[in-house]
Amino acid sequence: MHLVCESDNEITLELPHINLAGRLWGSPDKPLLLALHGWLDNANSFEPLSHYLTEYQILAIDWPGHGGSQHRPGAYPLHWIDYLYDLDALLTVLETQPVAIVGHSLGGIIASAYAAAFPDNISNLVLIEALSPLYENESKSKKRLTNSFSDHRRFLASLSKPVSIYRDMAIAANARHKLTALDLQWCELLTQRNMQNLDSGVCWRSDPRLKLDSPLRLTFSQVDALMQAHTVKTLLISGSGGFPQLREAIPMANRWFKQLQTIELEGDHHLHMGNALKVSLAIEAFLKV
Question: Domain 3-137+219-288 carries which CATH code?
Answer without folding.
Answer: 3.40.50.1820
